[in-house]
């Protein structure tokens, strides 16, 4: 197994253990044993437990962020495609589990919560801002917007009640179809000539 595959396996094991036992209930020793690596390997590969948790969050987000291809086509289509991937990620079982974990541990581990936010939601809002800035100005209902502010508002609209219902275990994770419908309805609120249905 090459180095990248070993790192990926380590992060997958860590995510499973964090989701099962919580942040405070998971130790580097247990992660190393479950991943069948030396404890030292964990430290040299990703760092301490907080670094490992952030790497888990970042790995999950890479599935969405690393697929963004700016200027790959119609900016509205690019925004819609990213929105669908974002909604599916943020409302996935893994992301919801990690969000619950961070919410529960934030008072005890505020630095962990801040790093989770920076490597998760803040990162995605930054991508949204770039995608919004790529839109022709006449496509936005908001004249001369601050793209960073609009990106935060769009992120909130995309997550909103759907995220809350997932956090409470009321709804299942969205399918590709339901995520696309939700993103289309959301973009209807900010775009002139929203994406084709």
From TrEMBL:
Superkingdom: Bacteria
Pfam families linked: TetR_C_7, TetR_N
Claim: Electron transport is one of the keywords in the record: no
Keywords tagged on the record: DNA-binding, Transcription, Transcription regulation
Matches recorded under InterPro entries: Homeodomain-like_sf (IPR009057), HTH-type_TetR-like_transc_reg (IPR050109), HTH_TetR (IPR001647), Tet_transcr_reg_TetR-rel_C_sf (IPR036271), TetR_C_Proteobacteria (IPR039536)
Annotated GO MF terms: DNA-binding transcription factor activity; transcription cis-regulatory region binding
Transcription in keyword set: yes
SUPFAM superfamilies (UniProt xref): Homeodomain-like (SSF46689), Tetracyclin repressor-like, C-terminal domain (SSF48498)
HTH tetR-type domain boundaries: 4-64
DNA-binding region: 27-46
Protein known as: TetR/AcrR family transcriptional regulator
Organism: Jiangella rhizosphaerae
Phylogenetic classification of the source organism: Bacteria, Bacillati, Actinomycetota, Actinomycetes, Jiangellales
């Amino acid at each position: 197994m090459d180095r990248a595959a070993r790192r990926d396996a380590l992060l997958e094991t860590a995510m499973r253990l964090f989701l099962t036992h919580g942040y405070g209930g998971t130790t580097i020793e247990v992660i190393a044993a479950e991943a069948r690596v030396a404890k030292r390997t964990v430290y040299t590969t990703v760092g301490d437990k907080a670094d490992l948790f952030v790497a888990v969050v970042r790995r999950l987000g890479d599935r969405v962020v690393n697929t963004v291809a700016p200027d790959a086509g119609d900016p509205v289509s690019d925004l819609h495609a990213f929105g669908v991937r974002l909604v599916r990620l943020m409302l996935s079982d893994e992301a919801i589990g990690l969000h619950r974990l961070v919410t529960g541990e934030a008072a005890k581990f505020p630095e962990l919560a801040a790093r989770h936010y920076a490597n998760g939601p803040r990162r995605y809002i930054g991508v949204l801002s770039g995608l919004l800035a790529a839109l022709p100005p006449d496509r936005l209902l908001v004249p001369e917007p601050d793209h960073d502010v609009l990106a935060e508002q769009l992120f909130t609209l995309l997550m909103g009640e759907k995220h809350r219902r997932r956090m409470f275990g009321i709804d299942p994770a969205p399918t590709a179809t339901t995520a696309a419908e939700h993103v289309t309805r959301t973009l209807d609120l900010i775009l002139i000539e929203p994406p084709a249905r």
